[in-house]
Amino acid sequence: ARGEFLNSARLDNLVSCFLAMEALVEHTEGGLLESDSDISLIALFDHEEVGSASAVGAGSPIMAESVKRISSSIAAKSASEIAPEDLNAGTVARSFVLSADMAHAVHPNYLSKHERAHGPKLNSGLVIKSNANQRYASNPVTSFVLREIARRAALPPPQEFVVRNDCPCGSTIGPIISAATGIRAVDVGLPQLSMHSVREMMGVDDLATGLEMFRAFFKSFRDIDRQLD
Hints:
Blueprint: E1 5-8, H1 11-29, H2 62-77, H3 84-94, E2 96-100, E3 103-104, E4 127-130, H4 140-152, E5 159-162, H5 173-181, E6 184-189, E7 191-193, E8 200-203, H6 204-228
Parallel strand pairs: 2-6, 3-7, 4-5
Antiparallel strand pairs: 1-8, 4-6, 7-8
């Protein structure tokens, strides 16, 4: 009634794809690409819901090959004496994956499904997803990077999502890419209800927050990462 919710099929995960694309386009058109010291890119994979083990899924060699080809191209144009394989290793070490998928928000009729301090709410901002069994790629360092990006951009502090120990936990492409390439990753998402139904629901405010987070990631990540060193 107040326009605070968005209802649609396939919010999971078209929302993340749309926001990432919009942020990258704005990053390019806003003149930030010229001063960008990184190779800023997005990767949208098929078959995430069925395990990603396909020629075009996150379990394929696409990501590792892309990084290798980019670093080889840079090496070919550089006068540096660094061996291509060493440049590729350095590129992997400096890279970072923001694995964005939707997150399960607290449902008022099923409060017991979430840990009391780890229940994402609609219209309350982005969610960092963690799992001790590595179903998500987030760790203390990569989670800190995202929190610091949010702080610098004056965004709401990221919410936390941890599945209860007695409940099964889904996964994302974050651990798959991180394990296959060695690239650091953090799993995030925007909270929603009725995931995988024909009428999913999320908060309108979270769309704006998600877009601002992607913008801030492209803009601020490298500076924050340098300070970690």
